[in-house]
Specification:
Elements: H1 15-22, H2 27-33, H3 39-45, E1 53-55, H4 57-60, H5 65-79, E2 85-89, H6 94-102, E3 109-113, H7 119-125, E4 134-136, H8 145-154, E5 160-162, H9 178-186, E6 192-194, H10 202-211, E7 217-219, H11 230-236, E8 241-243, H12 251-256
Parallel strand pairs: 1-2, 2-3, 3-4, 4-5, 5-6, 6-7, 7-8
């Protein structure tokens, strides 16, 4: 019996499949090239099909704040509530933070890096982030322990937190364990925690060990106040991987930290 196969042409694929394909293209290609190909592809780009994951990290690093706000509003509006992942640098306005959380009810992974977010803004937006499982607020210098406590109380299913700081931000400053205590007291379900160049010391880390019993990865590179007996830690927490405090580049880090972006 002769076996025949029917191969679909690219323009015959369902919109959701094409959307998944287009997600592999750069932001510029999706916005400027794909819409010019044909009417149906323009409809896909203007719909939710390829905006379930929005990564404008590189584009937003040195972007004009007003231009960044407009871009975020356009892309999140196109996602029509289906947005699962968002990565962006340097959001400056409270209005934009509010827009993000009000229009991204399905958000699971949120990376707000080097953003102008404050404790007050976190207090306002955290109740709408209850579905977040991974949060990155690295290099956000205007938040502290209070913001982390509010996040922990509202984001009950949070499994990953990244709170890396720049080495310059820790130079000459005294030890502070308030952030580690806030994490330990409100985020018991954490599995992955990144705290590079944080000001905590050994006491702060031990408090995290005591309360975050599901922890699998702890990154304390550059946390010079942390002095751990790794043999003891290995015996007490055999499944826990610790990076640091020496800031060496680690292949382990590259392979086990969740998510590529």
């Amino acid at each position: 019996m002769e076996v025949t196969s029917h191969l679909l042409r690219l323009d015959e694929l369902p919109y959701d499949i094409l959307g998944m394909i287009f997600m592999n293209l750069s932001l510029q290609e999706r916005l400027t090239v794909i819409p010019c190909v044909c009417k149906s592809w323009d409809e896909i780009i203007n719909g939710p099909y390829c905006w379930q994951e929005i990564d404008i990290g590189d584009w937003s690093r040195c972007c004009d704040p007003n231009k960044l706000d407009r871009m975020l509003e356009m892309l999140i509006t196109r996602s029509s509530g289906s947005l699962k992942k968002l990565r962006v640098f340097e959001i400056q306005t409270e209005r934009t933070f509010t827009f993000v959380v009000e229009n991204a009810s399905s958000l699971k992974i949120l990376r707000l890096i080097r953003c102008n977010v404050t404790d007050v803004i976190v207090e306002q937006i955290s109740p709408r982030l209850c579905m977040i499982s991974f949060l990155d607020m690295s290099y956000c210098t205007k938040i502290g322990a209070y913001a982390l406590e509010i996040i922990g109380k509202n984001c009950k299913i949070l499994e990953g937190l990244k709170r890396s700081m720049h080495p310059i931000d820790s130079v000459g400053k005294p030890v502070q364990n308030d952030e580690s205590y806030a994490i330990a007291s409100t985020m018991p379900n954490l599995k992955h925690l990144g705290m590079t160049y944080n000001l905590m010391d050994t006491h702060g880390v031990l408090q995290i060990f005591s309360n975050c019993l599901k922890l699998e990865i702890l990154d304390v590179r550059g946390c010079w106040g942390v002095k751990l007996d790794k043999v003891m830690v290995k015996q007490s927490f055999p499944k826990l991987k610790i990076l640091g405090p020496s800031p060496e580049v680690s292949l382990i880090y590259q392979s086990i930290w969740p998510g590529k972006w």
